Amino acid sequence: MTDVLVSLVDDWPFPLFKLNDLDAITWVNQAAQEWMGKGLRQIEGRIIWDVIETDPDTRSIAMKARAKSATITSRHIAVKKTGSTGEGEIAHLTAYTTADGTGLSIWFVGPEPRGAKMGGQVVTGMGRMIAHELKNPLAGIKGAAQLLRDDVQGEEGLALIDLIGSEIDRIRRLADRMEKLGDDDPLVVERVNIHEVLRQARRIIQSANPDVVFDERYDPSLPDASGDPDTLMQAILNLIKNAAESAGATGHIRLETSFRSGVRGGKSSRSLPIQIRIIDDGPGIPKDFLTQIFQPFVTTKKEGQGLGLALVSKVAAAHDGLVEVQSVPGRTVFSILLPSPGVSTL
Q1: 3-108 CATH
Q2: CB atoms within 10 A of CB 73
Q3: Which of 27, 118, 223, 254 could form a disulfide with 340 if both were Cys (CB 3.0 to 4.6 A apart)?
Q4: Over the stretch 165-215, which tens digit does the pLDDT of each residue have?
Q5: Residues 6+ apart with CB under 8 A from 346
Q6: What CA–CA distance (Å, rounded) separates 97 from 63?
Q7: Which CATH superfamily is domain 190-338 in?
Q8: What are the two backbone dihedrals, phi and then psi, of residue 42, each rounded to the nearest 5 degrees?
Q9: Model-level pTM?
């Protein structure tokens, strides 16, 4: 486990365990130690199911994850520390493979052990990591891009250099904001031309996936959205990147905007008339994952960490919006619904 990942997951507010192929504990985060009431030295090397109790079917979750090289979640399972009284706390248990072991997370859905909102805290921790790890190299990358500009000729090459520079500036702003990302987001609220955000995101993804065919169908009468352009850009980038990976090198992705009436959401139950849809023709998302994919650590990707869609969900909620997904083989649709400035909540 890298130092970067350790610094991130050690601060997460729910228990995380790292296991070897025999389900013996090799590492735990701070939340796991607090919940167990024991330090790593006291439980390192012990079989996980000797120190926590749950139902017999769930005890094979890590083995199944290794066998299938997939992320597996058992939902609404009673779990407790071995030797404790009572029926235990209700939790989702997620097992996922890593480069050198198996991860096991316990996400409490009843009383939360550290009084936190789990999904928000996960993304908050991820934001701190992004800010800490990206700020320092950004200046060097931008300096290198400026030096390359002196040697680049032609409008296409210069446009790519400008794209690099604008993305570096956006990432720096995003890192500043995500360092403080919390329940009162977004930190910046302004009118956002969502079509400009979509076009910029498409250019970024297409530069890395030149053979993917994009079809852009935008409603020119759509009003501006209300929100933070940088965090919205990151959420849309995540969705388009996922679509490109799903569709494959010669796939098709459609980006759409439209007016959608009758939908309300968020803490203030605002009307959400602005609909953004990212549609790909990939193999689709397995039905078992559809109700879970916005949770941290849930992913269908063999090398994925399952955090990108958790961020999308967090950003949508921070804007008093919603994110939806529909998927069948050959067609997956992610929709973001956002409020418009001045739209009444009545």
Answers
A1: 3.30.450.20
A2: 22
A3: 223
A4: 777 776 776 666 555 444 444 456 788 999 999 999 999 888 888 888 999
A5: none
A6: 10
A7: Histidine kinase-like ATPase, C-terminal domain (3.30.565.10)
A8: -80, -25
A9: 0.52
